[in-house]
Amino acid sequence: MFYDCIVVGAGPAGSTAAKILSQCGYKVLIIDSKAFPRVKLCGGCVSAKIIDYIPNIGDLSEKIAFKAILSYKKSACLSIESTEPFAYFVDRKVFDNYLLESAVKSGCKFENEKLIALSYDDTMIEVYTSKNHYKSKYLIGADGANSTVRKILHIKPKFTIKTLQGKSNTLIDYINVDIGFGKINYYWSFPQNQACGIASPKKNINKLFYKYYKTDDVFDVKGYFIPIAFSKNNLGKSNILLVGDAACLADPFSLEGIYNAIYSAHLAAASILSFPKNPYEAYVCLASKILEGNKYSYYISQIVAKFPYFVFSKLSKGNESVLADYLKGAKSSKDLFWLLLKNLYKKTIK
Ligand SMILES: Cc1cc2nc3c(=O)[nH]c(=O)nc-3n(C[C@H](O)[C@H](O)[C@H](O)COP(=O)(O)OP(=O)(O)OC[C@H]3O[C@@H](n4cnc5c(N)ncnc54)[C@H](O)[C@@H]3O)c2cc1C
């Protein structure tokens, strides 16, 4: 069967791209190896800037955070509050199913099939799934962190961040991020679903997790990984575009991946619609803002890992509003990076 575009993966990235292309009259097939609604290991925290793409995010959220606490080794704390939301918390099972249903309502076809293999040239893509064989003009790889499409294209992440997430008996009604233990991204505790976790490029995060959380306080602990890259080579090839985690586009410091998944899906769909002869080149141009932002986030993660106390103390003193804007997404990682660098420079020349 022939489609204008086949989307592999029905997470936030895939469903968003499928919806836009179907709305514009493309014949679209979206496949996912899992039956929906499906569970996805995730904190479900989406920064407030998502409202640009999902105006009804408030209705889809289980919780909305107006308060965040940045802490250092659990003790020193900086509390930031706002009358506007910092972030929305979604249940991924419900949220992803809503996005897929919206895509199907727009006219695309959904099949519960697993991508097995691809063959492609500049004019045609052949897609082999667990059940069928399809052909299409374009393909969007939205199949997440362990993307089969990315592997078939021989594209690799720059590195991976390991994560462990569990549930805590200690309930909170704010976001808590602790950067005090060095060489990690951070520990997090969220108001939704009792979620707590750790993210780090280090291998043995089990030990680090239980160094911070009390064994008798946490349960249901599971691990996964987040691939990171900020190169145009990770965005695909020719008529095959990678989006979201398949393109390794989660923010390397905050590890927020849902926003860039949805944002990159908009850019990939726009590239196919506006530049049908060479969507990859167009997508590389459009996505350069994401790649640049992620580079700065990577630099921040390096500074945090090396100088956690310095970062904590600098952000604590008079920079609450910058931090609040960063959490909401109103200030970029580039803004935060330069703020930290300016302070680092001042400290060095003193
Ligand atoms: C522990 C943890 C906590 C996180 N917390 C947050 C958070 O609080 N906020 C945030 O923004 N981000 C968070 N993230 C990152 C976030 O989950 C991802 O960035 C986001 O899900 C990416 O969306 P996506 O659509 O690209 O991929 P996914 O949501 O992973 O969707 C990919 C889909 O592809 C399907 N698939 C995979 N392989 C195939 C195949 N071969 N054939 C067909 N289908 C296939 C999968 O079944 C899946 O449904 C977290 C990640 C982890 C691991």
From TrEMBL:
<dbReference type="InterPro" id="IPR036188">
    <property type="entry name" value="FAD/NAD-bd_sf"/>
</dbReference>
<protein>
    <submittedName>
        <fullName>Geranylgeranyl diphosphate reductase</fullName>
        <ecNumber>1.3.1.83</ecNumber>
    </submittedName>
</protein>
<dbReference type="Pfam" id="PF01494">
    <property type="entry name" value="FAD_binding_3"/>
</dbReference>
<dbReference type="InterPro" id="IPR002938">
    <property type="entry name" value="FAD-bd"/>
</dbReference>
<feature type="domain" description="FAD-binding">
    <location>
        <begin position="4"/>
        <end position="193"/>
    </location>
</feature>
<dbReference type="InterPro" id="IPR011777">
    <property type="entry name" value="Geranylgeranyl_Rdtase_fam"/>
</dbReference>
<keyword id="KW-0560">Oxidoreductase</keyword>
<dbReference type="InterPro" id="IPR050407">
    <property type="entry name" value="Geranylgeranyl_reductase"/>
</dbReference>
<dbReference type="GO" id="GO:0102067">
    <property type="term" value="F:geranylgeranyl diphosphate reductase activity"/>
</dbReference>
<dbReference type="GO" id="GO:0071949">
    <property type="term" value="F:FAD binding"/>
</dbReference>
